[in-house]
Amino acid sequence: MKVCIAGGGIAGLAAAWALTKRGHQVTLVEQGSIPNPLAASGDEHRMIRRGFGSADGYARTISEAFTAWDELWRDLGRSHLSHRGVLAMSQFEGDDGENFRLGYDRMGEAYELYEPKEAARRYPFLDPATIRYAYFTRAGGALLCQRIASDLARWLTDNGATLRLNSRVDAIDADKGTVGLGDGDLIAADQIVVTAGAWVLQLVPELSRHLTLYRTFVAYLTPPDDLASAWADAPAILDIGGETGAYMLPPVAGTGLKAGASLVKRPACDPDADRVESHGEGERLRDLLSPPLARIREYAVARVRTCAYTFTADDKFLSYRRGKALIVSACSGHGYKFGAAVGRRLAEAVESGDDSSLLRWLRAEA
Ligand SMILES: Cc1cc2nc3c(=O)[nH]c(=O)nc-3n(C[C@H](O)[C@H](O)[C@H](O)COP(=O)(O)OP(=O)(O)OC[C@H]3O[C@@H](n4cnc5c(N)ncnc54)[C@H](O)[C@@H]3O)c2cc1C
Predict the structure, then answer these.
(1) pLDDT value of residue 278
(2) Does 284 share its domain with 235?
(3) Is the same domain home to 303 and 160?
(4) Is residue 246 lining ligand 1, measured as CB closer than 6 Å?
């Protein structure tokens, strides 16, 4: 089958990988480079973890995601998952930090629970006076997105797929099965896969009924010198507790120490607009990390990275069929960790035409 994929983030790249493995003739079109620094998948690292709070469906599906990544590492000849484990903490009763722990309990996921003083002994960047407890799970850590993208692009080229980089899909005729590019080229395909991330509404405007676009940013931080070694060995931080929805990724394999928070996202109209950091954004995000981080003002903001992404109302992933085009969005801020599995499932659906099984799986209702 000839398959044309619009969008070379993790979903498009992984779909291209899985379809190529199944013997299909794949052309992947990406408007930027791979990795594309403006895409959600283009950042240095993303967290993979077993904690999903009340979303038990995804807590179950994540096992398949780990297996799919293992298959990818075998094909690439090396792993891009840094197994640092995952830490979280609670600041007050019923906060997200506590909800993630309750999710672990329901799923039977083992964790080590630390009193505040013990947590600060193990992780000296924490202020023990500000937390009720911290807990650590071994499963999970950081996925090195930029390395994954580069290696996947290389694997695809080596295995016969065609990559059209810096080439924009301008129009999709889902009935005829054609994809029109900005340079005037027309690609004919038996099936079209649209994995356009934050740009999907430009190609499939009717999805605005289900998807809302947001602009957010992450901050890369330089810790004070005497805390650098604690961070160098630190796990990923799933949630700092409290009400900011803040998380952190430690420096791993040459990446920086990164922080993000659900509190700083805001609705947007255009994924390409407002992509330059505004004055003081990084410091504002940094300051949300205290509590529970100690000495927060001693952290320098090294750089800020803006991001665009879409959310569904229930934070679940989405697929949608229009003629020969299958549109998939593993969105709502938690899709990267499922990337390799999304690619495999997408390839299965392209072959079988069983869109409803795909949607059930994407919504973790299978
Ligand atoms: C700040 C932030 C933190 C996150 N943290 C995590 C995390 O820790 N763990 C996790 O699992 N998930 C996380 N996510 C979510 C995760 O990054 C996304 O779910 C995932 O990367 C989406 O991948 P995608 O391939 O669907 O979309 P994208 O990565 O956005 O890729 C879409 C691609 O399509 C291309 N494209 C779009 N339109 C066209 C066109 N017309 N023609 C050609 N190419 C086009 C774009 O250039 C882009 O490269 C986070 C997201 C953000 C924004």
Answers:
(1) 92
(2) yes
(3) no
(4) no
